[in-house]
Design a protein that fits this description.
The complex is a heterodimer of chains A (286) and B (264). By secondary structure, chain A is of the alpha+beta class. Chain A has helices at 5-11, 14-48, 51-76, 81-98, 100-115, 155-160, 186-199, 234-252; strands at residues 123-126, 129-136, 140-145, 150-154, 163-165, 171-180, 210-216, 221-230, 261-264, 282-285. In chain A, the strands form three sheets. A five-stranded antiparallel β-sheet of chain A has the order 4-3-2-1-5. Chain A has a three-stranded antiparallel β-sheet with strand order 6-8-7, covered by helices on one side. In chain A, a hairpin with a 3-residue loop joins β2 and β3. Chain A is elongated and about 125 Å long. Chain B is mainly β and 264 residues long. Chain B is built from one helix and 23 strands. Chain B has one helix at 48-52; strands at 6-7, 11-14, 20-25, 28-35, 38-45, 63-66, 73-79, 85-89, 93-95, 100-108, 110-115, 122-127, 133-138, 141-150, 164-173, 179-181, 184-186, 193-196, 199-202, 205-209, 216-220, 232-235, 244-247. In chain B, strands 1-3-4-5-6 form a five-stranded mixed β-sheet, with no helix packed on it. Chain B is elongated and about 65 Å long. The N and C termini of chain B lie far apart (55 Å). Classes of the chains: A alpha+beta (286), B mainly beta (264).
Chain lengths: 286, 264
């Protein structure tokens, strides 16, 4: 389509040129300003609170700023904003119906950020999955499991499920279940367990180690030794204390039993092959 | 072959090739070796019997440092533990309102080895005793400390071993309640070490107990304590910080809350 000079003159009226210049100024000045304000807020909030909160505040400022700038540009160019907003509202409703899950995830994400049950770097367990949180995003939380798999958990699922933050608190208790023979001297068992805990430098002196007699098992008397460690040394303590208990029990002559079954032989009825029943036989197997 | 050991000496020490230097401080054995532009360091904590039967041909796990050409000496200094220490007096004692008590705590030292260059490069820090760790505070918020059973003597420790540093602590009870001193958190990061003859001292810590849950006012005095007024500084504080602070310092014999006892 070719425009004649007259048509062009009609189109480029001084008012329209003025509006165009104002729209260009809005785009050139206020759009970068909105992006700068977003980055600044992100940095400030991250410094004062958490990186995640900074990211969210930055995104809110960025998208709100961009939307406002474009609405102002449309107004300057002579478009009426009211129908646009109306259309946006209708489109929003349609979009919301079409993307209920996504919207739910976004809102869940906001709740997660407000509640702050975990942060990037924490170790969490959700259902059967345990891993390190590598990012908390608008729709989902990304995790890396300890065998180096990538897991994406929708935010909605995290809000609905039971979530365990393994590294929330600075110290953790290691629970060691140990069974001893019914012949064992229980006071000696307690003393040996306490001595093992005392000798391990990773085991915290306070909170003090806890020994609980858990009950009488099929083959053993069961104890639970609860010892505390700083969370960074939890696994190291869990590994070392068990081998130390075994060594200490061996040295103290305390038997850690394994399942045993006593089998009583029942005399079979007399038969030509077995004319006389034998005496009750007793045998043990391990 | 039985090893020849030297007692530890604080200050600079020249490293001559190909000699291997073995220093003893309490139960700690520190070994040095210099080969060309490399300094090797090793340490072990041994029992008295193990010291008596030390074999110099036994393999050693060296930590190797490549150093600048011409490096001929290292500086050996005593150091304090890297964490605050939780002092557990063998017998707890009480301080009545308005009274003050001065106690002396033996803190096991670390042997700190540094280069004498402008960077004061740390080569190794070897504790003479392996201290257990403990937690000061609640399970959701607190501070990791070393556990130190001590007599918390009311008199100076005259027969202090070579691996111990004497830390004088003055406790003022400014509250209206009796203070039972059964646990005392001593933040050693801000303390310096002074030498007077063969004995080592830290500067004095003053703790003003304000009552119950109120943090105590803790002040570290500069300079040697009055018991060793002529002592000279041989190690500065590990952490620079204000000489006065408000900090939780005491913990009573109250056991941990019942919820810790529940098992899953």
């Amino acid at each position: 389509m070719e425009l004649s000079l007259e048509e062009l003159q009609n189109l480029l009226t001084p008012e329209r040129i003025e509006s165009g210049v104002r729209a260009a100024i809005l785009l050139v000045v206020f759009l970068p300003l909105a992006l700068y304000a977003s980055a600044w807020a992100n940095k400030r909030v991250a410094k004062k609170y958490t990186a995640q909160r900074g990211l969210v505040v930055g995104k809110i400022i960025r998208y709100s700023g961009i939307a406002i700038v474009f609405l102002l540009v449309f107004r300057e160019l002579g478009f009426s904003i009211a129908p646009l907003l109306g259309a946006a509202g209708i489109a929003g409703v349609a979009l919301a119906f079409a993307s209920q899950t996504s919207v739910s995830n976004i809102i869940s994400g906001l709740f997660l950020i407000a509640e702050n049950p975990f942060s990037v770097g924490d170790v969490i367990t959700v259902g059967e999955t345990t891993g390190i949180v590598i990012s908390i995003d608008t729709l989902s939380v990304k995790m890396r499991t300890f065998d180096n798999r990538f897991v994406r958990l929708p935010n909605e699922m995290l809000i609905k499920s039971e979530l365990i933050n393994v590294t929330k608190f600075p110290i953790r208790r290691v629970n060691v279940e140990v069974g001893v023979s019914y012949n064992a001297d229980l006071e000696k068992v307690r003393a040996t367990l306490l001595s093992v805990a005392e000798k391990n430098p990773m085991c915290l002196v306070e909170p003090a180690p806890l020994i609980i007699l858990n009950g009488f098992g099929d083959s053993s008397i069961n104890f639970m030794l609860g010892i505390w460690a700083v969370r960074e040394e939890y696994i190291k303590l869990k590994n070392s204390i068990q081998s130390e208990i075994k060594a200490a029990f061996d040295e103290a002559g305390i038997e850690i039993p394994f399942p045993q079954r006593v089998v009583h032989g029942v005399p079979s009825p007399a038969s030509p092959e077995n004319p006389e029943p034998t005496d009750n036989a007793q045998s043990g197997s391990s | 072959m039985i090893m020849e050991l030297e007692p530890i000496g604080w200050g600079t020490r020249s490293l001559e090739e190909p000699d291997r230097t073995r220093l003893r401080c309490g139960r700690l054995l520190v070994e040095f070796s210099k080969v060309e532009d490399e300094i090797c360091l090793a340490s072990r904590n041994l029992s008295e019997e193990e010291f008596e039967s030390l074999d110099e041909t036994a393999p050693v796990e060296w930590t190797r440092w490549a150093v600048c050409t011409g490096t001929e000496e290292v500086r050996i200094a005593p150091g304090l533990p890297r964490l605050p220490v939780m002092v557990d007096p063998e017998d707890s004692f009480h301080v009545v309102p308005g009274a003050e008590a001065r106690i002396y705590v033996r803190i096991p030292l670390s042997v700190v080895v540094r280069l004498t260059d402008k960077f004061d490069q740390l080569l190794g820090e070897f504790p003479t005793e392996t201290l257990s760790q403990t937690w000061f505070g609640e399970t959701d918020n607190g501070e990791l400390c070393y556990w130190l059973s001590s007599r918390a003597s009311r008199r100076t420790l005259d027969e202090l071993d070579e691996a111990g540093i004497q830390a004088p602590v003055t406790i003022h009870n400014d509250s209206a309640e009796t203070l039972q001193v059964s646990r005392l958190c001593l933040r050693v990061g801000g303390l310096s070490i002074y030498r007077s003859g063969d004995s080592l001292w830290t500067n004095e810590t003053t703790i003003r107990f304000q009552g119950g849950a109120v943090p105590s006012k803790v002040a570290v005095k500069s300079g040697p304590p009055k018991e060793a007024a002529a002592a000279h500084l041989i190690s500065g504080p590990r952490e620079a910080g204000p000489s006065t602070a408000m900090a939780r310092t005491f913990r009573s014999l109250r056991r941990w809350t019942v919820d810790l006892l529940d098992i899953e």
